[in-house]
Model the fold of this input.
Amino acid sequence: MRHLALAASAAVLAFAASSAQAEEGMWTFDNFPIARANQTLGTSIDQGFLDRVRLSSVKFGGCSAGLVSDAGLVMTNNHCVATCVANLSTQAVNYAETGFTPKTREEELKCPGGSAEILTDITDVTERMHKAGEGLSGAAFTRARDAEAGRIEQEACGDAADKRCQVVSLYRGGQFKLYTYRKYSDVRLAWAPEDRAATFGGDLDNFSFPRFAIDAAFIRLYENGAPAATPTHFRWNADKPVEGAPVFVSGSPGATQRLLTMDQLASIRDVVLPMDQLIASELRGRLIRYSQEGERQAFEAMDPIVGLENTYKRGLGRMRALTDPSFIQMKAAAEIDFMQKYAAANPGQGPDPWGELEALQPTLRELYPAYALLEGGTGIGTTPVAGGSQLFLWARTLVRGAQEREKASAERLPEFADSRLAATRTALFAERPVYPALDQVRMEWWLSKTREWLTVDDPRVRTLLGNESPEGLSARLVEGTTLADPAVRRALWEGGLAAIQASDDPLIQYLLKIQEPTRAVRTEWEEKVQGPTDRASEALAAARFAAYGDSVYPDATGTLRLTYGQIEGTDVPGQRWGPFTTFGGLWERATGAQPFVVAPKLLAAKDRIPADTVLNMAVSSDTIGGSSGSPVVTPQGDIVGANFDSTVLTQRNAYGYDRNVNRSVIVTTGAVTAALRDVYGMDGLLAELGVR
Amino acid sequence: MRHLALAASAAVLAFAASSAQAEEGMWTFDNFPIARANQTLGTSIDQGFLDRVRLSSVKFGGCSAGLVSDAGLVMTNNHCVATCVANLSTQAVNYAETGFTPKTREEELKCPGGSAEILTDITDVTERMHKAGEGLSGAAFTRARDAEAGRIEQEACGDAADKRCQVVSLYRGGQFKLYTYRKYSDVRLAWAPEDRAATFGGDLDNFSFPRFAIDAAFIRLYENGAPAATPTHFRWNADKPVEGAPVFVSGSPGATQRLLTMDQLASIRDVVLPMDQLIASELRGRLIRYSQEGERQAFEAMDPIVGLENTYKRGLGRMRALTDPSFIQMKAAAEIDFMQKYAAANPGQGPDPWGELEALQPTLRELYPAYALLEGGTGIGTTPVAGGSQLFLWARTLVRGAQEREKASAERLPEFADSRLAATRTALFAERPVYPALDQVRMEWWLSKTREWLTVDDPRVRTLLGNESPEGLSARLVEGTTLADPAVRRALWEGGLAAIQASDDPLIQYLLKIQEPTRAVRTEWEEKVQGPTDRASEALAAARFAAYGDSVYPDATGTLRLTYGQIEGTDVPGQRWGPFTTFGGLWERATGAQPFVVAPKLLAAKDRIPADTVLNMAVSSDTIGGSSGSPVVTPQGDIVGANFDSTVLTQRNAYGYDRNVNRSVIVTTGAVTAALRDVYGMDGLLAELGVR
Done:
């Protein structure tokens, strides 16, 4: 317990935090602290409230959303439908520019590849999952558990098209739960405002407050070609919000790393975020310049730039947190408290999960660049996707999918287990536009950054490039491939490995060629980093339950959570602001230069909207990326807004909740009502929402 | 002395370093450890050797160089003349592509704005300088000392055109020396190879070894229109180098931060380098894409991209050092050793310079972004210049120069003291090409990053942008300005403040408009950061002399230093390589795709150059950026190469010397001889060098 000795001497105990602070926590619906929330907020919610909120909450891609009518109408953020809008638009008919305003349900358009889910059931499968990993280590441990998860999912959901099953690891392996979802594969766009009304202030105002953005949109769930019947839903409430009022935010926050040890956080600070952010910054530069080369390029690059800038700015906030001495002190104090409880409960020389995790860090630091660049999806960084391009990712899915489907489900890479194939196919076959020039820029960037970070003499880089340059290779692959055509992708998928091997598509051939080194990188990571980390984290989770019981909540995992708080500004020096902004504030902030130009239709409605109508508000709830679109709900179950953002300072909530600075940013139902009524004339939707 | 208690408990004393390691140190010529060097290397150099080396060493812009004939011929690196080559080239006659190969002296071309200097005298002025700062603090302290330095310089050099005087702060204010130089303002290009012969491997091979680059060039010093007489010079020695042979490297390393405390280094790790590197990475992306837009753009952006990538890669190496646990442990151990000696010598409650510096860090962290972005030249980071553009910098010099020259010399910003005006004029009046489109890209990037990092609501950003966008403003300024014309710049300079105020040049008007906020940022930095830091550093320097005597060397300051070592590869795991590369290795490394294409003329000479001719070599000397072009000298005073690079791992030498990994990379005189003789047919130069 060298750590404990060291840490205890560091005289930071003044900050010692025991368990969760008031209002802290992204709680699972089966372990929500009802009594504590009621006590903190002065409310009286009960299990029935939780059930209704859960069944009214919708997961939509990487976003959250809420049912607002009995005919499948769902409110989410405009930025959550931005890719759908981009896919439905052309340069000539550009809904991002004009807004999307169908006057009837028949005009609602299907989002390519879009699907939505409602969580219907949670079952404990911890015992089965722990048993599957018993006695194993390294990659074998990881693979055995992945296989068991796939089996559990397949047993529970089979091939049902309207269900999805997912084994969720909670508390970093402390618990495993089977989540069952009602799944909707036909999701249509029902309304989106002008993009600039939703993104007023652009990247500059992103992750900040005061804020002036109508970042809302509606989608509709369909079944059998008709609007889905959804008797359980939130009641639309557009009343003027009141400071201090209690609210609940229900959504699917993507990922937090609050249960990581200080050593693990140091690796993120030193290695993970610096690399990810630096290469993202260069891509940003390339795309900004690309977007200035013409109207076509501006159109193509808009959505990718917004997404990239959002991830990048979040990463900046995280770097700031991990380099903020006072925040780090708070985290260290909490770790010391935990270590002391553990030492008191284990007076002998017990296992030392902190030491195990510390010992893994040099390997993690060494292997991270190759893993992040060649495989992506590390879960701890902000790396843009491996391959850099949509075409590349499709090709990888086709090649790996064909190779993996030759094996039994339990032996495949987990994303190709039988239980996951339906989602894979949906994404692969979606009718989405591809912009080859843009894809080439991204693939060239990816090849060039991979070569730079791994070095030109790395054998994997040699396989990746051969004697070609990133410029030449990416141009050759993008020009030669026909994967932009969904029919081609479908035929290759259905043709299996024989079709893949016989294909003369250069991108397919390329992906075949690089399978060996890229798969090896993934295996090495699982063997030397992921597997051992998971095992040690599981031990830490057991220790945490022993020390704190269920008064701790699990890290966010992209699954449904409930968080609570109140409508509130901040009183932190340098960050003082009240909880509300108004349309009047929007008109004042407009300079006439982008990104501070008011969208034309919105501007035209200026005189119809009372200037004191609340536009956005801040709440103290604990949210993170993925919480976007989360319904904000009163204790009575009324929806009063959609969460769409937080602040740069709040990005520290990836690693720990800081009550002083943590604020989520909400677009109010009042603002949405005004937009529907006074700007976009969406009378049908207003009637459906019960607005008089 | 809280620090000491804390640090001593950290159990890192195993690494404790006392004073300089063998071969460590960028020593001043007036405090070179002759005995120690002779003992370490088995040589017998003496004061005469030092004097000859000093008088044969040349400072050329930000680079180093060495005299190699009695007619002013000087060898440096090709990358040190790259800007000169770019300034002399057009897209049609592009010497970077063809090499510059004058057959007679008459064909040698003057480098616009180029000047070179030889250090002739060193005088101690510590007492005067310390006296000037007595009793003062903050900005007053900084300004009083700047003024005294200007006075000393002016007294010593007056307006002599062939001399330059410079008061140099050594040991972070521990000593002040007056350096007097013989100055040459007419420097001509005498030979440059094809740029690709000098930069083979491009950014990928930069800061690495093995290396295959003829990064050498010749310039010639002129006086009164004729080659300067330089009887003292190095003897050209192109013999095959021998592993283990002792060498001395004489040059002007730019800046190190080895005397900084751990708290100061943490600020660089957490705040300075992350910001600088992230914004540089975005500029890199913008410029890469710009360079792909056409041949003109590729031509314009080549030199800026190379410079940017060089600084950026150096920054990466520095980030790696500051996040390397073992390197940080080594630095911490050295600090503990120093603290313990200090505590032993000061048993009472003496002043605590470490504590003072620690207390300054929150302010430094807060003020750094504005200072770096609006003023630049922080000396601790890697920020590209404020304003982002050449035109902007000229305008700033004109506006500030006019404003400052209204005051007495001692009251001006130090760069406009009488003693510095000659250099300012030379740079300002130089006939250099300007590429407006490129300048606009850079200015737009700078405005946009400044707005992003300081936030859109910062009053200084409001002044900077008004209601304009970075795109619109930069385009308006670049299109409207006539400062690209040197005659315009000269007229505005000579017209003084009246001419500036009457000018309708939009860039001049813009610089006038932003003087108040940018000057305020600088004053605040001097008041709250620079001044107090200088004072505490001076106390630390006194403590260091007390603890270690003159066995310590000062941080690099862009002034002449001598370092010693031997020809040697490395035996570090993952970094094992011998000391030499050959032309044969070059042919093997060529893939046919850029940047691994052999330059055409060089390739055509393949059969004429023996494959085992040594091309580059590694030495263990202690160098850093600014050491580029440094003559590598035998104990007999022969020149055997020019330092041109080091490795990424070596970048830690900004913060501390690490004998295991520190290697400088040298282009050998043998390789240069082969290039002159077998590739470029420079018979005149060969004869001048005495090559048979």
